[in-house]
Design brief:
Distance between the termini: 64 Å
Strand order of the largest sheet: 1-2
Radius of gyration: 23 Å
InterPro entries: Abi_system_AbiD/AbiF-like
Pfam families: Abi_2 (PF07751)
Number of domains: 2
Order of helices and strands: HHHEEHHHHHHHHHHHH
Protein name: Abi family protein
Amino acid sequence: MDYDKPHLTYADQVAKMQQRGIVCPDQDAAIGLVEMVGYYRLSAYIYPFRELLPPDQRQKVSRAHFRAEEIRCDTHVSDIESLWRFDRKLRLKCLDALETVEVGLRTRLAYVLGRRDVFGHVHRESLEPDSCDEPSKRPALGAHHAPADRFDEWIERYRKLESDAKNEDYVVHHRGRYGGELPIWIAVEFLDFGALARLFQLLRKVDQNEIASAMGVKGGPLLGRWLRDLNYLRNLCAHHSRLWNRTLTYKAGNFNKTQVGEDLQHVASGGSREKLYVPIACLAYLTRRISPRSTWPLDLRSHVKKFPVIEGISPGRDMGFVEGWESLPLWSAVPAKG
């Protein structure tokens, strides 16, 4: 099908919203919102206000096609803006906690691997043989050969990040004074969340378990899965993607209740594992274990309780928040002072 939608001015975009039934009492304010956010981005927040299609007409255009073009009666542009602003603040709050987890992971990974081998991140023999030798699934990129295994894949990624950081003061200082490889406690400073998660997957099992234990998790493989999920969450937030009602690419796996503290055991199995609640609960759990005085879980609870009052949508239905979540210890416990 040929694409035939024309370019529209901001005023025309607001007029289109009005034609669809969205009430815009302040034309200038509506135009300002479209100029700031963009009509296409706003359309993701308009979508929940569209009427549901009859069951036999859903998913005919695409697997995500559930709603008609018609907007629910008495939908105001302020409703749409409130939902967008809620989601924006949700992303910023998640990034705050993700920073705590990322820095905490850097610190523990550098400590444990550095004790084994100062340059363990580039020495295959200091990592888990079975994990390093696992064949790479990544194809060749351009003129580059495809990496043979996961260790080669890691080294390729590491060298790229190392090159990108070559002008950082701490790298220049080390190169000028010592030359050679960077020790792990320097290298972790330029590893992004995804690279840290990859390196964690290559650690020896005993090292994985030690890091996981320090973060309140019994078993390195479980923490490794969480890091994958949180890296995905981090990318969504960093790229300003819609978050609040997203169906996640990585469905949160079940785990044994004995692997975590009592405050997280309610998400060990069941629930809407393709929704946001499980990974955000894991994020709250890790944040509190890394930084015991953190008020982030309380701050997140306060924000979610301000979810816009809109018929047909809610944190429970669209984000997977369990009934009575706000009174659970994970979200209600006040951190110790001092």
